[in-house]
Amino acid sequence: MANVENVQVNEIPAPERPKSISSPRRRFIKKLGKKLLLTISRIQTKQSLVPTTPFIDIEHFDFLPQFAENWEKIRVEALEVLKYRDDIPGFEDVSPDQYRIAKKNQWKTYVLHGFGTRLEKNAKLAPFTTELLETIPNLQTSWFSILAPGYHIPAHKGVTKGIVRGHLGLIIPKDFEKCRIRVHDQIKPWQEGSLFVLDDTFEHEVWNDTDEERVILLFDWDRPMKFWGRFFNGLMMRLMKMTAYYQDPKKNLETAEARMEAAIKRADANMEKLGD
Fold it and tell me: Cα(225)–Cα(45) distance, rounded to whole angstroms?
């Protein structure tokens, strides 16, 4: 394998959408999986130790205030990541199954954690944020979510009641009321330094009706539940890791990390040349 230090960014292929995404077998597994997840979600709803409403008050999670308290430090690291904006993958490049809601790199994702695992190379650009995220019990995923001006994420639903999701506003358009999310029948705009928690199994959609970019820290963790809720959540996660819905993003994230690492090394090399 080539040493990444000597690889130009354009020599590392961009993540590919698997040809099997529309195969009958994959459609069958997806349909079966949705039925299974629906059954498990009903159990998780009954087992939940926090409200099962579209938005959940942050007072139920004692580890969250530190994110609002440190949002400016997190923003600094997000700005560092944005220096390499062109090399940040679109959501559809990371998870090809999202191609209906993420198009043409209009919704970029700089992932720090995936399925509970730290992405070591990506974490180097955001060490403070990464460490802070890892104080969350049973953290599953985290990323800087970067939405292009004028983009609309169509209505969609998450797959499991077993997680809850946090949004922390970092770089929000001045006309913030035009940059908003609808979860079920409730709409919230993002604001810098403001954090809210949502249940993404409710239908939700996003609008950025401004001419400015929107950047938030998005992170998922296990919903607090009683024993059987936790049991079925763990079972579901293990099953998901055996499918293409886990394997494809995992492979694509490895490629995206390599591209980003190469971009950083190339930028550093260019800076050294300027200093000569």
Answer: 9
CATH code of the domain containing 186: 2.60.120.330
Residue 268 lies in a domain: yes
Q: What's the whole-model pTM score?
A: 0.87
- Does some domain include residue 1? no
Contact 208/151 with Cβ under 8 angstroms? yes
Q: Could you report the average pLDDT of every consecutive run of 10 residues in the chain (276 residues)?
A: 37 48 58 72 94 97 97 98 94 87 93 94 97 97 98 93 97 98 98 98 97 98 96 86 80 90 86 69
Is the CB of residue 64 less than 8 Å from the CB of residue 203? Answer: no
Check residue 19 and give its pLDDT: 57
Residue 7 forms part of a structural domain: no
Count of other CB atoms within 10 angstroms of residue 169: 22
Q: How many domains does the chain have?
A: 1
In whole angstroms, give the CA distance from residue 107 to residue 60. Answer: 30
CA distance between the termini of the chain: 31
Assess if residue 18 is contained within a domain.
Answer: no
